[in-house]
Write a structure and sequence with these properties.
The complex is a heterodimer. Helix content of chain A is 22%, strand content 23%. By secondary structure, chain A is an alpha+beta fold. The longest helix of chain A has 10 residues. Chain A starts with a strand and ends in an 8-residue tail after the last strand. Chain B has a 6-stranded mixed beta sheet with strand order 5-4-23-22-21-6, with helices on one face. In chain B, strands 27-31-28-30-29-32 form a 6-stranded mixed β-barrel. Chain B has a 4-stranded parallel beta sheet with strand order 10-9-8-19. Classes of the chains: A alpha+beta, B alpha/beta.
C-alpha cells in the first residue's frame, strides 16, 4: 500500500513563503487563494515570546471530514491517501469548507487575476474554467505524482514526481513521500523526531506531520 | 485539465541575482512561448549549497515579465516642468529617436568637456541594490568605461541601507567586504541583527537550517523578533544602537573574568598586532633605522623588529625600550630613549576594563549575568587549541562566530561593533579559520573574484590597504565626485566601487545646500538611472524626489512608471530578467554566505521573447556606443573584461573586432567561450549554444580558499588589530586638511578615528540631533526601525502582486508593528490607522500588535509609500524612508548612516489623503 504524507520541520521553516509562491504558479491559483501557505504565529508575552512559522494546507486526512460532508462525492480520498476534488461533480456548496478543521478549502466564484479583469499571458495560459464555482484546495500536485509514478519515479525523491512546494522549499523544511515505505524520507523523519499532527483530537487522521522539539509551544 | 501538447513545453535554465546573496540557479517553464512557472534547477543540486533552489522573489519573475503596467516602448517627456505634482506627459517614441536624443546630448557634453567648471563629471549614473544591477545591465559597463568620467555619487540607498561599516572595516581588517559565520562548521553564533533567514539568500537559509538540526546554538540580538530571531535558540531584545556596548562587555568578560590561557594566545601573538609596542604619543614604537614596528622579545628581553626571526613577542605588559621612534600624522616623528611602552594588547585591555557586564546592563537593557553567560558559552565553544584538516592542510578549528546586521554595522556605533566583532574573533583565534568568522568577498581591492589574491604584504606586517591620501599636497581638497568620497573617507579608497560606497546621501544634501566653506556641487548634465528608485528607497524621500526634479536631463531604464523616473526625460524599456542575456560568475566565495565547493559561470538567457519594444541591455549599450562614436573603445573594453570575463587570456583569444558592432549573441558567445577557457586553462571551451542548453559550468573550488588564514600564514602577515594606528593617522591628517580649509562640520566624524574604540553613548546621538533641530526629544519617544522581508528585499518588486500576496502571510507586512502593551497604553487597537511622525515627515499605516518587539520601538517593514508605481501606489503601506532625515549629525566617519529615527505615534482616521 501507499500513504502519501507531508512533513513540515518547524525547526527549519523561516516563513519565507517560497512554497506558497511556487504552489500558486504551479497550480495557477487566483489572487488570495493559497493551497499552501505559511502561518506566522506568536506565543507568549514580551520578552518571553516565541515566533514560529507553520506551513499549512489540506492535511489529506485518513478520515477526511470534507469528504464525509460532500453531497456529490466530488471530494474523495484516493487509495494512496490523497484527498482530491472532481471539479465535474463539485457543485460549490461549501459543506466541505465548513466541515474542514483546517480551513484548507476555498470557493472561487468568479475569475480573478493579479492585475484586474484581464489575465496576464501566464495567467491565461494556466486559467482553468473548471475551477470557477467549485471548491479548491491542495491536492499534493496529484497530476505530477501520477505522471511521475507512471514514469517510474518516486514521489518525494524525484522532483518530477514531487509537489511543487516541496521542490521549492529552500530550508529543507518540507518533505513528501510514502509513509508505508519504511525507508522513505518521511518515514525516517517521523520515526527519528518528535512530531505532532494539527488538531489530532479531531480524529481525522491528518497526513501532515510537524516536527518540533520545543515543549513550550503547542498548536 | 487539458495538457498542453508536448512540443509546446520547454524548460529554460537561468539564474536569479536580484539580491547580493546570489546568484542562484533556476528553471523557467515555458508553455506555448509563455513563461508560466519558476522552479529550482535540480541539475545543480550537487554543486549548489541550497540544492539548486531559488528564493521566493524569483517566483515573482513571471508576473514581473507580464505586468501590464510595464513600459514597453521608449518614451519622452513632453511636460518640461518636473515635480511630484507634475504630469510628465510621457509619449511613445521610436528607439531611434530615443537613442539619437541621448547620443546628441552626450556628444554635446563631450564637446563642452567631460568635467564641468566645478571639477565634476557632467554625466552621472545611479544603480540599485548592492551592485546586483550589473548582472542585468549586459554590456552597459563597457559603454560606461568607453565614455570616461562618470559620477556614481548619487546613491539609491547605498551607504545607509547596506552593511556599510562592515564593508569598509571588514575589508580593511580581513578582506571581508561582507562577513558571515562559517555556518558549515560553526557551533555557536552571536548574531547582532544579522537577519540571515531573510537576507542571507538560499545558501544561508539552507545552511542555518541544517546547522540547527545538528545542534548549533545561535543567539540573536535585535529589538524585534525577526524571522532570524524566531529561528534562533535565544532572542535578546537589545535596546537599539547599544550592540557595541554589549560586545565590549563580552570582550571584558573574556579579558578579565577568564584565565588568559583560555584565549588563543599563539593567534594573538603571531597573527595580530597585539604585541606591537605603543609609545607615549599613541603611535607604534619603531626601529630608529628600519622604521619597522617593535615588539618585546621575551627570549632576548629586549625590543626587536616585529619580523625578527626566532623572536617570542610578549603579548602584554609594559616595557622600557632603549631606543625607538614614533611616527605620527604628516610624518611627525618623536625619537625616544629609555621609553616605556605598552603592547597594543595591553592598551586594548586597559580601554576595555571599564566595560563590565554590569556596566553594559544599564545601557543595553540586557541582564549582566546573561551577558556573562553568553561570553562564557562563546569561549566554551571556541575549541581553542583544536585543529581540523581542510583539503590536506591542518588549520585551527574555532567553531564560534559573531555576525552583524544592518543598522548594527552602519552609521554611528558601527565602528565599535565591527571592531569588537573582529576582536572577539581574534581573542579565540576564530578569524578566517574553519568554523569562525569569515569574509566572503572584496570590492575595494582587486581582483574582485579572488579575495585571497588581493592580499599583498605591507611594510608593517599587515596587508596593503590603499587609503585615499590625507597628507598635505596629496589630499583631494576639491572633490572629483559629488559625494566627496576621496576627500572625506580615506578608508573607502578609490576602486571602481569606492565612489558608490562614499557618503552618498551627502551628494543629495550638498547639491541642495552646501555646508560652510564647501563648494556646492553642480547638478550633472545627464543622469542615467538603472534598476534604482531612490525617491522610494533612500531617506527623506519627499525632499529627495524634489532634488531629482532639479536634475536637468534624466535617462531612466524603466520597468514601470515609478517615483524617480517620474522626473525623467527619456524612458528606455529594457528587457527584464526572463527576456535578456548575460553571463555571471557563481560559486567560489561571493557575497554573504555564498561560499561553495565549486565555481564557474551561469547564463541568464531569454526564456521568452521580450515584451513589446523592450530591448536587451547589451543591444542598448552597443547602440549607445555606436551612436556616440565610442564603438572602438566599447569593444576594447569588452575585450579587457567589461562584460565580466577578459576575452583574451594566456591560453585563449576570443577577442571581438573593435571596429564594428556585434550582436548580443556574438558578444555573449565570446564571453561564454572565454569564461570556460579561463576555468579550464583553455581545455574545455563551451559556446553560447552549450550554455543555452546546460545553463551553467563549474569546476571544483577548494574549501581551503574559504579562509584567509592560510594566506596570512604563508605571507607571514598579521591582521591589523586590535590597535588602529593607521586609521588614527589618517583621521588626524584628514582633520588637519579640513581645518586648513576652515571646514569644521566634519569634526564629529573625525572623533571616530580612535586607536581603540571607546563607548560614546551612541543612542544619545539621535536625541542630541533632535535637540539641535529645535525639537524636544520627549515628543519623539519611540525608536522607529525598519526590516526587510525576503519577498520584498531588493528586486524592485513592490509592483508584483504575487509578492504582496504571499508577504501578507507575515503579520507585520505593510503595517506598523507595535508592542501590544505599548499599544494598549496609547489606546491603539489592531488594524487602527496610526501616524508615525519624525522631525521631517510622517507616514501612516495600520497597526499590528505584537509581543515580539521592545516596548520603546516600532517597526515598519520594507520600503513602500509609492505614489507613482502602478499597483504599489494603491497599497497604502507605510515607509520608514519617509521619516529618516539626511543629516550630517547622523553620519559617521565612513559616510554611513543607520536606518533609525526617533518617532511619535498616534491614532488617525485613515491613510493620508
Amino acid at each position: 500500500m501507499t500513504r502519501y504524507v507531508m512533513v513540515a520541520d518547524l525547526r527549519r521553516c523561516v516563513g519565507c513563503q517560497t512554497c506558497t509562491a511556487a504552489c500558486k504558479l504551479a497550480n495557477g491559483t487566483p489572487p488570495g487563494v493559497q493551497w499552501r501557505r505559511v502561518v506566522d504565529m506568536e506565543v507568549g508575552s514580551y520578552p518571553d515570546v516565541q515566533r514560529v512559522f507553520v506551513p499549512t494546507g489540506c492535511q489529506h486526512c485518513d478520515e477526511p471530514a470534507c469528504a464525509a460532508a460532500c453531497p456529490t462525492t466530488a471530494t474523495h480520498k484516493r487509495a494512496d491517501g490523497i484527498v482530491d476534488i472532481d471539479y465535474d461533480l463539485c457543485i460549490g456548496c461549501l459543506y466541505c469548507a465548513v466541515a474542514c478543521p483546517y480551513e484548507a478549502r476555498t470557493l472561487v466564484n468568479a475569475a480573478e487575476f493579479a492585475y484586474g479583469a484581464e489575465p496576464t499571458a501566464a495567467e491565461a495560459a494556466r486559467f482553468d474554467p473548471r475551477k470557477i464555482g467549485v471548491a479548491q484546495k491542495c491536492n499534493f500536485c496529484v497530476d505530477k505524482i501520477d505522471a511521475g509514478t507512471a514514469a517510474g519515479l518516486t514521489p518525494g525523491k524525484d522532483p518530477d514526481a514531487t509537489p511543487a512546494c516541496v521542490n521549492a522549499c529552500i530550508s529543507g523544511a518540507l518533505a513528501f513521500g510514502d509513509l508505508d515505505d519504511p525507508d522513505s524520507r518521511v518515514s525516517r523523519l517521523i520515526r527519528e523526531n518528535k512530531h505532532f499532527r494539527m488538531h489530532e483530537d479531531a480524529g481525522t487522521g491528518p497526513g501532515f506531520y510537524y516536527l518540533w522539539d520545543k515543549d513550550a509551544f503547542a498548536l | 485539465m487539458n495538457p498542453m501538447p508536448e512540443k509546446t513545453r520547454r524548460t529554460v535554465p537561468s539564474y536569479c541575482y536580484n539580491c547580493v546573496a546570489g546568484p542562484d540557479l533556476l528553471t523557467v517553464k515555458v508553455e506555448n512561448s509563455v513563461a508560466t512557472e519558476i522552479g529550482p534547477n535540480f541539475a545543480a543540486a550537487e554543486i549548489h549549497p541550497a540544492g539548486g533552489r531559488v528564493c521566493v522573489r524569483a517566483f515573482g519573475l513571471i508576473q514581473k515579465t507580464y505586468n501590464p503596467h510595464r513600459i514597453l516602448t521608449p518614451m519622452k517627456r513632453t511636460n518640461p516642468l518636473k515635480g511630484r505634482d507634475q504630469d510628465p506627459k510621457f509619449v511613445p517614441i521610436s528607439w531611434d529617436e530615443a537613442l539619437d536624443t541621448i547620443a546628441d546630448r552626450l556628444l554635446k557634453i563631450r564637446d563642452a568637456g567631460m568635467i564641468d567648471d566645478k571639477g565634476l563629471p557632467r554625466v552621472a549614473a545611479s544603480f540599485g541594490h548592492g551592485g546586483t544591477p550589473a548582472s542585468y545591465m549586459g554590456t552597459l559597463p563597457a559603454f560606461l568605461s568607453a565614455w570616461g568620467p562618470m559620477d556614481f555619487s548619487f546613491g539609491s540607498g547605498q551607504g545607509v541601507k547596506c552593511t556599510h561599516s562592515e564593508h569598509l572595516y571588514g575589508e580593511f581588517w580581513h578582506r571581508g567586504f561582507t562577513v558571515c559565520a562559517d555556518t558549515v562548521h560553526c557551533r555557536y553564533i552571536l548574531s547582532f541583527g544579522a537577519n540571515v533567514e531573510v537576507t542571507g539568500g538560499v545558501c544561508a537559509v539552507r545552511r542555518h537550517a541544517d546547522a540547527r538540526i545538528r545542534g548549533i546554538k545561535r543567539v540573536h540580538f535585535e529589538p524585534h523578533l525577526s524571522p532570524t530571531a524566531a529561528a534562533s535558540a535565544e532572542w535578546v531584545p537589545i535596546k537599539p544602537k547599544t550592540d557595541g556596548a554589549l560586545m565590549f562587555a563580552l570582550i571584558h568578560t573574556l579579558l578579565f573574568e577568564q584565565p588568559r590561557d583560555r584565549l588563543d594566545l599563539p593567534f594573538l601573538r603571531d597573527r595580530t598586532a597585539s604585541p606591537y609596542l605603543v609609545g607615549p604619543n599613541g603611535w607604534f614604537l619603531r626601529h630608529p633605522q628600519s622604521k619597522k614596528p617593535l615588539v618585546w622579545d621575551e627570549r632576548t628581553n629586549g625590543a626587536v623588529e616585529f619580523d625578527t626571526e626566532g623572536a617570542v613577542p610578549a603579548l602584554e605588559g609594559r616595557f622600557t625600550v632603549a631606543e625607538a621612534v614614533e611616527t605620527g600624522a604628516d610624518d611627525e616623528e618623536w625619537q625616544h630613549r629609555e621609553i616605556e611602552a605598552a603592547t597594543a594588547f595591553t592598551r586594548m585591555a586597559e580601554t576595555m576594563r571599564p566595560y563590565s557586564p554590569h556596566w553594559a546592563e544599564q545601557i543595553c537593557d540586557v541582564p549582566a549575568q546573561r551577558i556573562r553567560n553568553l561570553a562564557n558559552e562563546y569561549l566554551d565553544n571556541a575549541c581553542v587549541g583544536q585543529t581540523i584538516e581542510i583539503d590536506g592542510r591542518t588549520l585551527p578549528f574555532r567553531p564560534v562566530a559573531v555576525t552583524l546586521g544592518k543598522t548594527v554595522n552602519n552609521g554611528w556605533g558601527a565602528f565599535d561593533c565591527v571592531w569588537a566583532r573582529t576582536v572577539l574573533a581574534c581573542l579565540v583565534g576564530a578569524l578566517e579559520v574553519p568554523g569562525g568568522t569569515l569574509g566572503t568577498t572584496v570590492r575595494l581591492n582587486k581582483p574582485h573574484d579572488n579575495r585571497l589574491a588581493s592580499v599583498k604584504p605591507g611594510p608593517d606586517g599587515f596587508m596593503v590597504n590603499n587609503f585615499n591620501p590625507t597628507r598635505r599636497g596629496k589630499w583631494e581638497q576639491r572633490p572629483s565626485g559629488r559625494n566627496a568620497h576621496k576627500t572625506l573617507v580615506p578608508l573607502v579608497g578609490n576602486s571602481a566601487w569606492s565612489q558608490a560606497l562614499g557618503p552618498t546621501h551627502l551628494a543629495w544634501m550638498f547639491v541642495r545646500e552646501a555646508p560652510d566653506n564647501w563648494v556646492r556641487p553642480s547638478y550633472p548634465d545627464l543622469w542615467f538611472l538603472y534598476r534604482a528608485n531612490p525617491a522610494i528607497s533612500f531617506w527623506n524621500t519627499a525632499e529627495l524626489a524634489d532634488t531629482v526634479a532639479k536634475l536637468p536631463f534624466i535617462v531612466a531604464f524603466a520597468y514601470t512608471h515609478d517615483e524617480t523616473n517620474h522626473m525623467a526625460d527619456i524612458l528606455l524599456p529594457d528587457a527584464t530578467d526572463l527576456e535578456s542575456m548575460q553571463l555571471i560568475r557563481l560559486g567560489g566565495t561571493k557575497f554573504i554566505e555564498q561560499y561553495w565547493d565549486h565555481q564557474g559561470v551561469a547564463l541568464r538567457q531569454p526564456a521568452v521573447a521580450p515584451c513589446g519594444e523592450s530591448r536587451d541591455m547589451t543591444w542598448i549599450a552597443t547602440e549607445l556606443a555606436r551612436r556616440t562614436g565610442l564603438l572602438e573603445r566599447y569593444n576594447a573594453a569588452l575585450n579587457r573584461g567589461a562584460g565580466g570575463v577578459a576575452l583574451k587570456g594566456e591560453t585563449y583569444d576570443f577577442s571581438l573586432s573593435t571596429d564594428e558592432p556585434h550582436t548580443v549573441e556574438e558578444i555573449w558567445d565570446a564571453e561564454c567561450k572565454a569564461a570556460t577557457a579561463e576555468f579550464s586553462d583553455g581545455k574545455d571551451v563551451k559556446d553560447l549554444a552549450w550554455f543555452r542548453e546546460h545553463g551553467f559550468y563549474t569546476v571544483p573550488f577548494t574549501r581551503q580558499d574559504w579562509y584567509l588564514y592560510p594566506t596570512m600564514v604563508d605571507q607571514g602577515l598579521r591582521f591589523e588589530l586590535p590597535y588602529q594606528e593607521r586609521l588614527t593617522r589618517a583621521g588626524i591628517e584628514l582633520g588637519r586638511r579640513l581645518h586648513e580649509c576652515e571646514i569644521h562640520w566634519w569634526d564629529k566624524q573625525l572623533g571616530e578615528y580612535e586607536p581603540i574604540p571607546r563607548w560614546h553613548d551612541t543612542p544619545e546621538i539621535w536625541t542630541n540631533a533632535l535637540k539641535k533641530s529645535g525639537a524636544d526629544p520627549a515628543d519623539f519617544p519611540f525608536w522607529g526601525l525598519t526590516t526587510k522581508t525576503m519577498q520584498h528585499s531588493t528586486g524592485n518588486n513592490a509592483a508584483i502582486q504575487l509578492m504582496d500576496e504571499v508577504a501578507g502571510n507575515l503579520r507585520t507586512h505593510g503595517r506598523v508593528a507595535i508592542n501590544r502593551k505599548t499599544a494598549e497604553k496609547l489606546g491603539i487597537g489592531r488594524d487602527d490607522w496610526v501616524e508615525v511622525r519624525s522631525i521631517v515627515s510622517s507616514t501612516r499605516g495600520r497597526a499590528e500588535l505584537v509581543e515580539g518587539i521592545r516596548p520603546d520601538t516600532i517597526l515598519i517593514t520594507g520600503q513602500f509609500e509609492h505614489w507613482a508605481t502602478p499597483y504599489a501606489k494603491e497599497l497604502n503601506y507605510p515607509s520608514l524612508n519617509t521619516l529618516v532625515p539626511m543629516s550630517l549629525d547622523l553620519t559617521d566617519a565612513t559616510g554611513s548612516g543607520s536606518d533609525l529615527v526617533r518617532v511619535s505615534l498616534r491614532v488617525v482616521e485613515g491613510p493620508a489623503a
